[in-house]
Specification:
The chain is mostly helical and about 90 residues long. A two-stranded antiparallel ribbon has the order 1-2.
Length: about 90
Amino acid sequence: MNIDPNLIKKIASVSRLNLTDKETEKFTSDLQNILDAFKKLDEVDVSNIPTAIHPIDVKNITRDDIPKKCLSNEEALENTTLKKDGFFKGPRSV
């Protein structure tokens, strides 16, 4: 891909950046250097290398979901003084 000042100006416009001519010139060469570096990475043969998404094996450490008896409404509210009509009472929202 060829990077030219017009492309940089278009990217700057979409990004709502006001670049000077000097900045446009600098970003043109910088972006071209970045793309050249990625071209070098494309040349590396990685066909025999396994994908490494995580550096360590990920294991499920959650417990089994075993249904148990739930608290009744009265048991859930018995330790609070902030209750009204069978519900927890919270601060007023504005």
